[in-house]
Amino acid sequence: MGSLLTGATDCFIPIRPLHASFYDFLTDEKRSGPFFIDISTVHEDLAFACVQIMQEELCFNICGLESSYLRNCDVIDLPEKIKKSIPPHLACSCCLWSKHIEQTDFCISIAQSVESIFHNVKILFWMEVLSLLKCINVGPSSLAIVAKWMQGGNCKDTVAFMYDAIKCLQHFGSVMEESTPHLYLSALPFCPAMSMLASKVGSSFLTLLKICLWDAETGDQVCNPLWGHTGKVLSVAFSPEGKWIASGSYDQVICLWDAETGRVWSVAFSPDGRRIASGSDDETICLWDVEIGVQAGNPVQGHTAAVQSAAFSPDGRRIVSGSTDWTLCLWNGETGVQVGNPLQGHTGTVWSVAFSPDGRRIASGSDDECHIHAKPRILSCPKSGSSARLDIPPLLPLFCPLFQFCCI
């Protein structure tokens, strides 16, 4: 057949007629007889085969790229990785599947196979292959063709999903083709939170909801990832002196991190607005001068685990802190010296602390599920359903095991 077709002896070369007349012969049933080829049936078979190949072989980080700080063109062995991980039949399927579908009548079996790929996370794996093959421009037109084809059936959700993916490719296609990992690190996080693409596949990449620090010269990661956000991290910034990192996320929370030690769990302004107290993973509390932006004194030490909460008293003379060590500590708000011994009574992490308006009492919230009612001096515990009236002198610690609640 070598005199009639290309690729007859090489599996890496597409099979094509050497002359248009041979194509006309094969597609004319009267002339070709037993050699007749029904183009519509062939396209249907090829469409189904392409979708099946993608279903079976598409996967996350298919070429095993190790870093997002390198552009594709800077990955020295990328051509070898592509040749090894994206065989010709997969590359052909990813690029030409829509052309075959376009030439067929609507078929429910093909539509269901398409939905199994392009209505879930595998649509990202398909984009990944296109970016590696430098064919990202094929993406929008392919999805538009198939979305139009699927309108012939009851596939409204999949069609809407595809149009969301088209928008993603139009906005971020150049980014993906420049550096494939940024499909997951830049394109997906910046998709609108309410879009079908983000809501459908975003939960599959919760491990990306972290902040990593890297050495700009070597590209090495310099510490463990910083975890804490529950939504996609969209922006980060260093403080001018490089000690702090602020991060913003789709979870509508701004987090402050210690660039050397990890997360800052709590910050609190003094009543006069001149100082900030911060508690962090390094088991310390730091006091800061707001006007000049520098740390006031040395870190305050006393807790034996991460400081999760901090609050100033109404007069600014005291600071109370709660910790993962289950205790509360009281501090001099000016000097940072600890006042008395740690307050014990909780049986879980102390997540929140607050002074009463008169500064005579402290309310604390913990994993042990106990709380204080709106009425002063009334404590209750949901576990027992009981309550008690307490009259406590100023700054006299009282520990109530029944309620597992600490008051001052």
| Tally of strands | 22
In DSSP terms (H or I, runs of 4 or more residues), the helix count works out at: 11
Report the biggest beta sheet as strand number plus sense, adding barrel if it closes: 8 strands, antiparallel
Class based on secondary structure composition and strand pairing: alpha+beta
The oligomeric state is single chain
Taken from the alpha-carbon principal axes, the silhouette is: elongated
Tell me what portion of residues adopts beta-strand conformation: 15-25%
Alpha-carbon Rg, integer = 31 Å
Termini separation comes to 94 Å
Spans of at least 5 consecutive residues with low confidence: 371-408
Relative helix content: 25-40%
Overall mean confidence score, pLDDT: 76
Helices and strands in order, then pairings?
Layout: E1 5-6, E2 16-17, H1 20-26, H2 29-32, H3 39-57, H4 78-85, H5 88-102, H6 108-118, H7 122-132, H8 138-150, H9 156-178, H10 182-190, H11 196-201, E3 210-211, E4 226-227, E5 233-238, E6 244-249, E7 254-258, E8 262-269, E9 275-280, E10 284-289, E11 294-295, E12 300-301, E13 307-312, E14 318-323, E15 328-332, E16 350-355, E17 362-366, E18 371-372, E19 378-380, E20 387-389, E21 398-400, E22 405-407
Antiparallel strand pairs: 1-2, 3-4, 5-6, 6-7, 7-8, 8-9, 9-10, 10-11, 10-12, 13-14, 14-15, 16-17, 18-19, 19-20, 21-22
Helix pairs in contact: 3-5, 3-6, 5-8, 7-9, 8-9, 9-10
